Amino acid sequence: xxxxxxxxxxxxxxxxxxxxxxxxxxxxxxxxxxxxxxxxxxxxxxxxxxxxxxxxxxxxxxxxxxxxxxxxxxxxxxxxxxxxxxxxxxxxxxxxxxxxxxxxxxxxxxxxxxxxxxxxxxxxxxxxxxxxxxxxxxxxxxxxxxxxxxxxxxxxxxxxxxxxxxxxxxxxxxxxxxxxxxxxxxxxxxxxxxxxxxxxxxxxxxxxxxxxxxxxxxxxxxxxxxxxxxxxxxxxxxxxxxxxxxxxxxxxxxxxxxxxxxxxxxxxxxxxxxxxxxxxxxxxxxxxxxxxxxxxxxxxxxxxxxxxxxxxxxxxxxxxxxxxxxxxxxxxxxxxxxxxxxxxxxxxxxxxxxxxxxxxxxxxxxxxxxxxxxxxxx
Length: 378
Prior knowledge:
Elements: E1 5-10, H1 14-25, E2 33-36, H2 41-44, E3 50-54, H3 55-63, E4 72-74, E5 76-81, E6 87-91, E7 101-105, H4 106-120, E8 123-125, E9 130-135, E10 140-144, E11 149-157, E12 171-186, E13 193-198, E14 203-209, E15 212-219, H5 221-229, H6 232-243, E16 250-253, E17 257-265, E18 273-275, E19 281-282, H7 290-305, H8 311-340, H9 347-361, H10 363-374
Parallel strand pairs: 1-2, 1-11, 2-8, 5-13, 11-18
Antiparallel strand pairs: 3-7, 4-7, 5-6, 9-10, 10-11, 12-15, 12-16, 12-17, 13-14, 14-15, 17-19
Helix pairs in contact: 1-4, 1-7, 7-8, 9-10
């Protein structure tokens, strides 16, 4: 059957646009790739969230001319346990790299990848709302809300807000945690050093950005509600108590936003459809790996589909991504559950603190952790 497109990508977020650009970079004819999204680029780029990119993600972005962008480098990551012995420091110098990762804004990354997609000259359909998807023996048919329709050999689900019928059978976990997100200013900032601080209720991350830090503070919902409701000075006092004085005193905070946290892993494929990025797995932010895992998905899928956009390649994709997805999900899930499911000061929390000291003193273990966070498996 002759189809309108070889690949139809549903979702023009960073992962979907990276896949489109990577397919053309690897040799697929541009007008055989469709990139579909319900929002305009301008609407999507208004997202103010800060995101962490691994060094491996920078390498992927370089392939499609979406780097450099405005971003703050992370040269060191300091990981510690509040009130307990044990910490580890991961330094880019130990791996002969210019940085372990980078902090940028979602809108900045999206704009760079939108430019890459334009340069690749793929077919862009946006705003376009998909009303129905029908998988046939030799094609996938997409029906739009405005009456239009198209067919493709393979459909890639890259939209994190759209779930497949198999989602009910996927791995799902509610961590009973909420993430508070904001920007904070500290009196004694340490340039290019990020912090991951484990508290009794969850991880507290500070990522260097502009003249301050992007804050991601995970706590139980009742605690998060109280923190959100506090006046600025009271909130900063609570943050000081939770984090300590490694950065001096916290002197300012922007508007605080809250997001419920959970795990959804649903990487199932059918004969002609496949999910990548947040459409395949939504992770706890404890290690900042969600977007990075999605970009690795896109890299592998582009490599497999460019020479042969067939159901056989989707089977190979699922098999080749299993190890990286499983390891990343297990890493973030284990850390999240230790704090979400254990009472304050539980033995499991204490053992995690001790393990940080062991990792710091055992170079191979520290390297393994760092390499998984920076590169994963692709």
